[in-house]
Backbone:
């Protein structure tokens, strides 16, 4: 274990899922100090209060250390001190932290949540230990450091250096109570003087602190304003392709631009492009919140807080509590049910018929979701639910319709039907009814309520229970786009069918059969469909703290649009971006791996919690469709057009014909 890795573990806040807020520049300096300390422990450098001396320029083989070592080795005279090299090394702190966190996940010491949260793995959390690279077992670093400070145990030299580093960035009060910190001051001062390397680097870190002056607001550029009249002849506007519209605007106006009325009452600032996406993924938790856009929607169900409307620590806690309910592992235990319900829906597909693509795929998903996620057959309520959810999202989240439209007789009737269905869900989830049944999303939700009814009260239950049905809207649209992409390309369809025949010809496959080599082509079909036709092309946020993005000043309380999928259609990232090309996701191209380039599941802390579940369920449905049917788009030259609100979905003109049934259902 490198000191830099243990420093990250020491500063990890298990409540927030991220590094303790010691200040961005201070954190950069202390990370740099840990890298220099690791080089000193490897006998590559030596340092004291005045100078930092190169001892051995031989590479360590560690990508965390070698770039810094190479820079020190190639530096011209004069010889610099540790403070100089800390400030130089601090400039690459983001890259350093990425390497550290990825490495800790690879070692199974940390778990990484899709929303950008980190937590100790279950094994480390239970045992309080982890295995070091040399095969030895070490106590969790927080335990060691706290024992060294509070119990006055004989300190390990490495722990002395760690204490010197966190003391230098004033992080110790985050680990100790106020009383413990005051009582231990003399002990801490003594520990910080024990090791020469720790003392020299800790002192250099402290002297380097003092965050660099933020770019003055007066030096930022004015945000360009979109001329909406210029959008009228845009072909993508006529097709309703919101993702491509955002790409067109990014190309013309850059990474930050403003759209005034009628987009919204107050207008909005749009953030777009791969570099901006990467910045949001890293920094968004500090500057943006979602609560403002969800409050009216939550109130429809009597809720005060919901997972998509939470931010910060309480959002992370909710994600952790419900993670298993949305996990791929949970879906893998229910594969037989997915096969069964998918086949039940496919039985209605008759050779020679032409069927509406979006409706057929929505039914497939709604039936599966209602059984597997919420444990009831909600097929008799699906139509009412979908119409009510569509109207409420457009009215209360996107603010595109007046509120009185939620009170029409039709909407009132549908609301009543939805609450009848929710009561049915609750009645089916009593201990007796759920005995010997696999745990579903509702079970996880009710367990959270039972464990902490103050954090998650009854008033918030209804919204979370209907969340699975809301997910079926996205899943239905996503499957529609993937089926269209597959059916429009016969050679790709053939390759998917070959995978389906290999998997299903001798009976239904089990969990182990769905390895990436077995579903490679089908999985890439889904990936490409979500690039070209993302279901969630943008996200709404509000700035809660002033920030400067790409040189543009964005004040607090600004309505912001994350145009994350604008990056999906850029030819500097995706070659020939308008072409449906599944090979762009295979080595050596791997075009989707550039930071901020491929983001169909959203950005930052609110990235889709069930993304891995979705990928597997979509892949299974594509495989079953290809196994049982030959289908073709009608007409053959149909080009996808969209309903852009509340989520992007194929419009009613998307239809496909059932040309042939290949196997009996």
Residues:
């Amino acid at each position: 274990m490198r000191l830099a890795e243990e420093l990250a573990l020491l500063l990890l806040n298990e409540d927030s899922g991220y590094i303790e807020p010691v200040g961005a520049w201070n954190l950069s300096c202390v990370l740099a100090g840990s890298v220099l300390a690791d080089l000193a422990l490897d006998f590559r450098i030596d340092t004291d209060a005045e100078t930092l001396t190169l001892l051995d320029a031989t590479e360590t083989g560690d990508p965390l250390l070698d770039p810094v070592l190479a820079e020190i080795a190639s530096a011209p005279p004069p010889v610099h001190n540790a403070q100089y090299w800390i400030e130089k090394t601090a400039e690459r702190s983001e890259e350093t932290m990425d390497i550290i966190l990825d490495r800790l996940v690879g070692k199974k010491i940390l778990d990484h949540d899709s929303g950008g949260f980190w937590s100790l793995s279950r094994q480390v959390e239970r045992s309080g230990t982890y295995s070091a690279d040399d095969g030895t077992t070490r106590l969790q670093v927080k335990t060691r450091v706290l024992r060294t400070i509070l119990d006055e145990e004989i300190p390990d030299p490495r722990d002395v250096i760690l204490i010197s580093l966190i003391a230098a960035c004033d992080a110790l009060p985050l680990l100790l109570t106020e009383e413990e910190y005051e009582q231990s001051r003399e002990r801490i001062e003594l520990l910080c003087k024990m090791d020469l390397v720790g003392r020299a680097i800790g002192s250099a870190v402290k002297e380097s602190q003092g965050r660099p002056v933020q770019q003055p607001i007066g030096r930022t550029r004015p945000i360009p304003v979109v001329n909406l009249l210029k959008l009228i002849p845009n072909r993508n506007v006529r097709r309703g392709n919101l993702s491509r519209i955002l790409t067109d605007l990014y190309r013309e106006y850059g990474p930050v631009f403003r759209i005034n009325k009628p987009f919204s009452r107050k207008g909005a600032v749009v953030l777009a492009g791969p570099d901006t996406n990467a910045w949001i993924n890293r920094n968004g938790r500090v500057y943006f919140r979602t609560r403002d856009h969800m409050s009216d929607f939550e109130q429809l169900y009597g809720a005060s807080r919901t997972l998509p409307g939470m931010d910060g620590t309480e959002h992370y806690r909710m994600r952790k509590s419900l993670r298993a309910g949305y996990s791929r592992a949970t879906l893998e235990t229910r594969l037989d049910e997915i096969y069964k319900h998918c086949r039940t829906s496919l039985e209605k597909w008759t050779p020679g018929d032409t069927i509406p693509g979006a409706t057929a795929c929505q039914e497939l998903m709604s039936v599966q979701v209602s059984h597997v996620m919420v444990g009831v057959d909600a097929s008799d309520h699906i139509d009412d639910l979908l119409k009510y959810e569509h109207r409420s999202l457009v009215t209360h989240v996107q603010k595109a319709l007046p509120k009185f439209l939620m009170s029409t007789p039709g909407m009132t009737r549908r609301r009543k039907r939805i609450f009848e269905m929710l009561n049915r869900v609750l009645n089916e989830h009593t201990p007796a009814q759920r005995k010997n049944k696999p745990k579903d999303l509702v079970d996880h939700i009710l367990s959270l309520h039972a464990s902490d009814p103050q954090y998650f009260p009854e008033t918030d239950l209804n919204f979370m229970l209907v969340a699975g049905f809301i997910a079926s809207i996205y899943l239905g649209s996503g499957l529609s786009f993937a089926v269209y992409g597959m059916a429009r390309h016969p050679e790709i369809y053939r390759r998917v069918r070959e995978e389906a025949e290999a998997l299903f010809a001798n009976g239904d496959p089990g969990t182990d059969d769905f390895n990436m080599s077995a579903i490679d082509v089908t999985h890439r079909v889904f990936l490409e469909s979500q690039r070209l036709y993302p279901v969630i092309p943008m996200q709404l946020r509000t700035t809660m703290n002033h920030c400067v993005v790409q040189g543009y000043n964005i004040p607090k309380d600004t309505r912001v649009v994350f145009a994350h999928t604008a990056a999906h259609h850029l030819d500097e990232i995706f070659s020939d971006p308008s072409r449906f090309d599944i090979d762009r996701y295979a080595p050596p191209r791997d075009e989707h791996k550039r930071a901020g380039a491929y983001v169909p599941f959203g950005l930052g802390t609110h990235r889709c919690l069930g993304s891995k579940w979705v990928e597997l369920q979509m892949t299974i449905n594509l495989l079953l469709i290809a196994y049982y049917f030959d289908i073709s788009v009608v007409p053959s030259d149909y080009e996808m057009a969209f309903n852009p609100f509340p989520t992007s979905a194929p419009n009613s003109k998307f239809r496909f014909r059932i040309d042939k049934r290949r196997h009996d259902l």
Remarks:
- The chain has a mean pLDDT of 90.
- The longest helix spans residues 461-487.
- The chain has two domains: 3-208, 242-661.
- The domain at 3-208 is CATH 1.10.3630.10 (yeast vps74-n-term truncation variant fold).
